[in-house]
Amino acid sequence: MQVTFRILRYNPEKDSEPHFQDYTLSDVSPTDRVLDVLHRIKWEMDGTLTFRRSCAHGMCGSDGMKVNGQNALACAMLLKNLNLKRPIVIEPLPFLPIIKDLVVDMTSFFRKYELVKPYLMPKEAPPSDGTEYRVSQESVELIMESTKCIMCACCSTSCPSLWSDENFLGPAALLKAYRFVFDPRDGAQQERLAVANTTDGIWRCRTIFNCTEVCPKEIPITRHLSDLKRVLVSS
User: Fold this and answer.
1) For 94-110, b where at least 16 C-beta lie within 10 A, e where not — what string?
2) Domain residues of the chain, as ranges?
3) Tell me: the pLDDT tens digits for 68-126?
4) 107-234 belongs to which homologous superfamily?
């Protein structure tokens, strides 16, 4: 099966602005992933093509990009789920500065992630007998979905609120805040809520659901952010 892939290319050392370049492969399979195609193009057709990837199994989040207008992981998207009668358009994640081709600068994304202090700050010392902290099943279920986040940035870069305000923390950072605010072992709830309860925090969320729609781990991000709002209103 012959399919054309239209990839946004940009080399800051040579190009004045990004441009599209077409690559046509004549023997692709519907069960191939977008990442498989990118590998073939790079290895067999154009070694200058640049993109990120690591585990290639949907766990590291490094190969987030925009495919046919929607953010996704290249390693998790099968060609059979795309319209193969038209060129498949592959672009870097939106909003973030392009370093080269499909590689974007994640500095601002991780800076906001660090603002919520994404690590456990226990409110009490570990059990003296060497056992683990005891957490109820109900408490685990509250945070289980949010712990699946792989920081791929698909959610944040699909958020119109972030497009209009570059200082907005974004869904990924706020989801991480939720994860620890609702963790009964953590003792920094008020500190994290203070970060979320700012002009550029949770109240910039307009409940648009873009983040939930594109999340490759199928996390109901918008619902969790609404729960975070409820905590702030009631506190």
Assistant:
1) ebbebbbbbbbebebbe
2) 3-104, 107-234
3) 999 999 999 999 999 998 999 999 999 999 999 999 999 999 999 999 999 999 988 88
4) Alpha-helical ferredoxin (1.10.1060.10)
Phi, psi torsion values for 69, nearest 5 degrees: 85, 0
* Whole-number Å distance between alpha carbons of 104 and 94: 9
3-class SS shares of the chain: helix, strand, coil, % to 5:
35, 15, 50
Q: Which of 54, 55, 75, 80 shows the shortest CA–CA distance to 65?
A: 75
CATH class entry, domain 3-104: alpha beta
- For residues 103 and 188, give the distance between their C-alpha atoms in angstroms, rounded to a whole number: 35
Label residue 1 exposed, middle or buried (CB < 10 Å: 0-12, 13-18, 19+).
exposed
Burial 23-43 (b: 16+ CB within 10 A, else e): bebeebeeebbbbbbbbbbbe
